Amino acid sequence: MHDFALQERQVLGELAAWIADRRDAPVLIPPGSAGALPAVGRSGIGIRATWALLRDVLLPSSFPADHPRYLAFVGGSPTPAAVIADAALSAAAVYGGSELEAGDVVVAERMAVRWLCDVIGYPEDAHGVFVSGGSLANLSALVAARHDRVGSGGGLPDVIVISAAAHSSIRSAAAIMGCRVVSAGSPDHPTGAADLATVLDSLDPRDVVAVVANAGATNTGAIDDLAGIAATCEARGIWMHVDAAYGGAALLSPTRRPQFDGIQRADSVTIDPHKWLFTPFDCAAVLYLDPAVARSAHRQRAAYLDAVDNDDDNPADYAAHLTRRARGIPVWASLVANGTDAYVDAVETCLAVAGYAAKQVEAAPHLELVTEPRLSVVLFRRIGWDAARYAAWSAGLRSRRTALVTPTTYAGKPALRLCFVNPLTSTDDVDFILNTLEPDTSPALEDVPDTDHRATGDSRSW
Ligand SMILES: *Cc1c(COP(=O)(O)O)cnc(C)c1O
What does pLDDT average to over the chain? Predict the structure, then answer.
């Protein structure tokens, strides 16, 4: 273990204060200062100067995903408890792959996995692991699905049937696995059992690795007919994977829960705590109805692993990885620190602010809602704008560091998309963004007042 000299201890203290006060930090600085960075050279510049570069040049040039007006893509908003646990985890040099090394860290991660299984409605013996992201979770689940199919005899299946709005990571997983994808339904609408049956009828069931359904499509928030798809998969003996990377958090909302019915019948589920469950990057969960299949697909064997007890519950065994960060620890720490009611509350807040945004859009004569909001995604158009206009508006907000909102495409036409996953995003933030689209202010974006995120957001207790 390295000794921390006095200067390093001082920087650690500054780091702690910086973490706590980040929210009150001055305005972000535009990227482009990287030229000021010293070259990597034979002699170092010391920790104090390096920390100053990190704090004052590098980090403020990135648009933080927990900024209340980061509404592009899917942001995140880690709780203080999760951030603290994450920092401690790095410092403690925990190898999270095996019980032998990680000790009770594995026990706490298992509790976080169990909570997610409960949220889904999975039985007691379901299990899974935390990985780097939804992409690796989806890949790991599909590899387990294929392993299961191969185990039942026949050749190597090579077709993955996807809901048309499946996330890009599913195609990427298919490419890695040497599989082709066949898509069911339309990208702009939830996929139903009939859409799926039409596609499956045209395929030899022995060729099908799995069916991938969406529980919260990234672009639209749409949830497929999970119960109908589950019944179809069960009748045909096909593995069902549900990608709930973004949307799974809405299972916590009692009013939204029924839309997910059927998810508990899936053979595997992806859900990303680093999206809408208040955990730092990077952290996603892959969960299996029958974890033995995943273990058999993913467990690595080698002479140097002989000492790792095969009967242990080793997180390395449930995904395409070996050495791993114990990413479930920030999830567990935040859950025990805040309690699950706070999670329900935070998710409901995001849904309510999304509902507010949709109402404001409907009320504005120059704006048009393109679909009723599904989950916390609001899709709308600025009447009269083309793709170039949207791009210029988005770039203007980004370069002024006031908001991150990016255009998308819906039903073949450009649209704006707001995705709410941060309970600190307030209705004022929504008003701020919608105001910049008003006919009077939009051409002269330069006139938009330069506000940082100090002024916005309520003061939640996390
Ligand atoms: C974000 C997302 C993914 C990919 O997750 P990463 O954590 O970015 O790898 C997969 N599926 C859906 C539905 C997503 O929203």
Answer: 92
